[in-house]
Amino acid sequence: MEALWSAFLEAGDLDMVRSTETALRLMASHGDHTGAMKLLEGIYALVEIAPPEDFTDCQQYPALAQMFMEEFLAGSEDFIFDAGMENVLAFLTDKGQ
To answer: By CB count within 10 A, which of 4, 44, 46, 60 is most buried?
Structure first.
């Protein structure tokens, strides 16, 4: 999961990554786990990383899609926060010079 967000961050900027993560969370919170997985599938394709082995199976069954997205989003939260803090620290460091 961290490799996916890192590669996605290299393809765009932090705002794009945060917006995409927000869209994934919004879709999942409204019960559209299959749709969220389709968006996630597009991200995997964009950064040319193969999704996990169970990804396709989870897309086919709503209950598995929900479990997958809950686990994925729980793990991504720390990464997005850490990436944002790195940018804040860089910004503050640059301002001080």
So the answer is: 4
